[in-house]
Design a protein that fits this description.
By secondary structure, the chain is mostly helical. It is built from 11 helices and no strands.
Length: about 200
């Protein structure tokens, strides 16, 4: 059971993350300072830095949990192939390993995803960080799957998926259209990965 102190820390961390995301979406990543985030969150800059090591960590704060979910799912696959358990995580939700199936995404969430994608796309810093994050997943995915070559190709599939979803969001496509693009472009890549391993 979480202590009161742990709950307060988690609430403060979430408040900082939420405020930073809104500021990034409104003003662009590069224009927002740590002081802006601290002021909007009603904390000090030092507090922001205690929770997040860098400004980029605020934008990508959900990525460690996504990786943990991918690794746990692949490691716990039993007799199924690593690709078989990766497939639904990649195809069945607009959020990688997210809790929302495509059919459950409403207009408000779709608009929030679009704002997030546009912010990332406009920022060279965030674009570079996204590439580094995906590359950093190679070793943990290889350990979970027991195959470095599989993990290298899986990272390629995840990169493709991210590009397809982000391109669709930034282009203003509907959720149904982006879902069709994911199925048309990413499913064949998963098929090839399955055949290869």
């Amino acid at each position: 059971m979480e202590s009161l102190r742990e709950r307060k820390r988690a609430a403060t961390r979430q408040r900082i993350s939420d405020q930073a995301t809104r500021l990034f979406e409104r003003h662009g990543f590069e224009a927002v300072t740590l002081a802006d985030i601290a002021a909007a969150s009603d904390v000090s800059v030092k507090t922001v830095m205690n929770y997040f090591g860098a400004k980029e960590d605020l934008f990508f704060d959900a990525e460690p949990a996504v990786l943990d979910h991918l690794v746990a799912t692949i490691a716990g696959r039993g007799e199924r192939s690593a690709t078989a358990v990766l497939r639904p995580l990649v195809l069945d939700s607009p959020l990688l390993a997210g809790p929302w199936p495509w059919r459950a995404v409403d207009a408000e969430l779709w608009a929030a995803l679009r704002a997030f994608a546009e912010c990332e796309r406009r920022s060279p810093t965030l674009t570079a960080r996204r590439a580094a994050i995906l590359q950093s997943w190679l070793a943990p995915l290889a350990a979970a799957a027991g195959s470095t070559p599989w993990a290298a190709l899986a990272v390629g599939v995840l990169t493709l998926r991210h590009a397809v979803v982000q391109d669709g969001l930034v282009a203003g496509l509907t959720l149904a259209t982006v879902r069709r693009h994911v199925k048309a472009d990413v499913a064949p890549a998963l098929d090839a990965l399955e055949r290869a391993f």
